Amino acid sequence: MTRGNQRERDRAKAQKAASGQKTKTTKSKAEMQRDKDMVAQLMRDKQKQAEEKKKAEGAGAAAGSSSSSSGGGGGGNSKK
């Protein structure tokens, strides 16, 4: 029993579906590296800001807790 042109139609249909899908990345290595470096720099800046905020809060908390000793262990979340 022959399939007629069914095989050819299925092949054409599959080829059309495959052509609509995304292929390889269009960025060059230099562009990918530049984007990666930019994201890394943003993360470093974000971490630096978080550390500065932590230091500022720590300095403020240390000044405030030195007058009243509560014995609470710093008041922060001791679980890690």
UniProtKB/TrEMBL annotation:
It comes from the Eukaryota. Residues 70-80 have a biased composition (Gly residues). Pfam families: SERF-like_N (PF04419). Residues 1-13, 28-57 have a biased composition (Basic and acidic residues). Residues 58-69 have a biased composition (Low complexity). Residues 1-36 form the Small EDRK-rich factor-like N-terminal domain. Residues 1-80 are annotated as: Disordered. This is Small EDRK-rich factor-like N-terminal domain-containing protein. It comes from Choiromyces venosus 120613-1.
